[in-house]
Specification:
Elements (H helix, E strand, L loop, with lengths): L8 H23 L6 H8 L3 H7 L3 H23 L6 H18 L5 H8 L1 H10 L1 H17 L7 H14 L1 H6 L4 H15 L4
Length: 198
């Protein structure tokens, strides 16, 4: 068992939880989330498997926590990198670029594979955790439609279609067939044309 170096048990637990999620991040880049085992996560985090289960009772709970962390990073990055005065097209391009960079940084299986691996209930909870990213995209679409930059149908439906287009580049991106920059140009160009943006 790792020696407690934090000032309090609460701080120690928070540090250990961070180490676990950082281990998931490293393993996801090396082998993908679907191949990762709880034993491997524990070893990478420098704790026992039993200790890992004290933090996360199963892989689904671990992936939910990891997804929540990645979503938080995405939202912080989007807010930090995007000037408030950016045009709707610039906001859309930034969203696409950060989504693609996130795919490369934290590779994961597609929705169908995740659903099969986690089961429908856990998969739905996972989908709920990434809802804030969809909310950002809906806001971009609504803002662009209100300003006349975009011609779009219902923003929620349009956002789901755009996320599907981004997801379609997952395999080419992870296989090295395309770069983040190439994928961003392809997706953004396609989506902006579909939205009637000049």
């Amino acid at each position: 068992m790792p020696r407690i170096s934090a000032a309090t048990i609460g701080e120690h637990r928070a540090q250990t939880r961070d180490r676990i999620l950082e281990a998931v991040s490293r393993l996801s880049r090396a082998q993908g989330i679907d191949e990762m085992s709880m034993t491997e996560v524990a070893g990478e985090a420098g704790i026992t498997r039993t200790a890992l289960y004290n933090y996360f009772p199963d892989k689904a709970a671990l992936l939910l926590a990891f997804t929540e962390r990645v979503t938080g990073y995405f939202i912080e990055s989007y807010e930090r990198e995007l000037p408030p005065e950016a045009s709707p097209a610039e906001k859309l391009r930034a969203f696409v670029r950060l989504q693609l960079a996130g795919l490369v940084a934290h590779p994961h299986p597609g929705p169908a594979d995740l659903s099969a691996a986690l089961g429908p209930d856990a998969y739905q909870r996972l989908a709920d955790h990434v809802a804030p990213m969809q909310d950002i995209l809906v806001g971009i679409i609504e803002g662009g439609t209100a300003s006349g930059d975009f011609r779009a149908g219902p923003a929620g439906d349009t956002a789901r279609m755009i996320l599907a287009v981004i997801g379609a580049e997952r395999v080419p991106l992870l296989s090295g067939e395309v770069t983040v920059e190439q994928a961003e140009e392809t997706i953004s160009g396609f989506v902006l044309r579909a939205l009637g943006s000049a």
